[in-house]
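Quick illustration for those who missed Monday's session on complexes.
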Amino acid sequence: MLRISVLRLLGRPGTSGVSLLEYSSPRHYSSGPLGARDDARGARAFFTTPIFYVNAAPHIGHLYSALLADALCRHRRLRVPSAAATRFSTGTDEHGLKIQQAAAAAGLAPTELCDRVSAQFQQLFREAGISSTDFIRTTEARHRIAVQHFWGLLKARGLLYKGLYEGWYCASEECFLPEAKVTRQSGSSGDSCPVSLESGHPVSWTKEENYIFRLSQFREPLQRWLRGDPQAITPEPFHRAVLEWLEEELPDLSVSRKSSHLHWGIPVPGDDSQTIYVWLDALVNYLTVIGYPNAEFKSWWPSTSHIIGKDILKFHAIYWPALLLGAGMSPPHRIYVHSHWTVCGQKMSKSLGNVVDPRTCLDRYTVDGFRYFLLRQGVPNWDCDYYDEKVVKLLDSELADALGGLLNRCTAKRINPSGTYPVFCTTCFPSEPGLVGPSVRAQAEDYALVNAVATLPRQVADHYDNFQIYKALEAVSSCVRQTNGFVQRHAPWKLNWESPVDAPWLGTVLHVALECLRVFGTLLQPVTPNLADKLLSRLGVSATERGLGELCFLPRFCGHPCPFEGRRLGPETGLLFPRLDQSRAWLVKAHRT
Ligand code: ME8
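Prediction with ME8 bound:
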């Protein structure tokens, strides 16, 4: 297979006059073919989602976390295809007071609740195409071994001591809260009860002898880590927030509870009267899945990227790196943080009855449609609001009309009767813009389109690296619009295959549009894998031609052979993405309520 990078395409040697270089920002020339940087590092990459509490069924926020991780991981696999180079874990967080109480309230044994809800997460993730390589449950034996080993290390390094711990405990958040984070709220019977200021969840006063971790020793090491690696926590506002937190003293952290109070968890090694704090237990899942404490884990740690919601930033950016440093390990490579989904302007909650069921959404909008919506509309830096009409509007305009319409326009029998990838004519579309001649048909906007699509893979990769997947999709969508503009401008339906004057230009217009579609299909694979497969299959692109490392765009334009030219298109398999019928009963109902 011919390897022509976008870089080589743009910076082709030996050309005089105006080249595409003039249309591109210089940063596109600095980084080499996609995949090369990762290959050169020879690095392995390990992506994780949070592990989800099993006290309630999954909602769209959980799916969003998993989708972000899935898209990052799929994009990475397209850059570095070796199966051995990438790992991706998700799972369920099954211990702790919250689960113990939820099981009691449901009249179930904790194991029954865990089995039931963990299965719901597994089913959802299967249906949504989450391509994880491991699903961990913290009730598994392998995890108990890892947690107890990790505990032993902290103990041996003198970082745990026994002491009286006193304070407010919020079971819903599974954390101690300082006085300043607690307020009073009047209950239904008029009495006032203490609640967490941030979440409104009830808190209770707890005074116990526990094991305590010397967290206070790690304030400066954490500051050094974050100041030395400005991208450790991405996006930047979250990095800044953690550094601000670290300006204040760090109190030591209670890392166990009395077993008489919390029995649903992992016992402290050598002291059955204490159960390990659920957050320490949960965080170690990231090591369990890479084989810890066996030495194999070292080939995956610390090249780890944690994808988390903003609600659990403190646990991942302070407690976890401190625990790791305490155990003699490095902090994770990256912590990618996202904000939350609200529903019609309100926080999603069982009590408000506004929890959006992700499985219903996958049914209504299709797996690819709903994946596209969440990743296109979800902005990590701030909260996003969900409502049904928004999904329909986005999918109809971007997937059905713009992308589906473009494919249809270029492959329809009436315009492309031979059902092939037509030949590109360099006389009609010379590589140097501004040439004048009787056969030159390309216009300035057409060169702008070629440049936009040629630089798109690099742009998309940069957005993935910065955890701005929505911007990657915005960039693809903008190029789809530009390509539709190109087709509209040259109206191939007005050109005639029989005419020796029209035919080379008609073929060229279709060739360029199909090449654009091939790039879009390749770049959409991490987000809409089924739709991208359908698109690429329709274009006749084989499974081995879909990676990013060798993605070349319009090689003919700079005089290289194009492996697709003259190739038969794949079979017609119907609309790429059918419009969502606005008159569907459920939508009418949603409007009325
Ligand atoms: O916190 N919008 O589990 P969890 C977007 N078990 N994402 C949301 C969301 C929303 N409205 N609500 C939740 C826990 N999430 C712990 C984690 S990890 C070692 C232990 C996402 O089930 C967000 O990523 O309460 C959040 O961090 C995650 O779901 C887990 O929530």
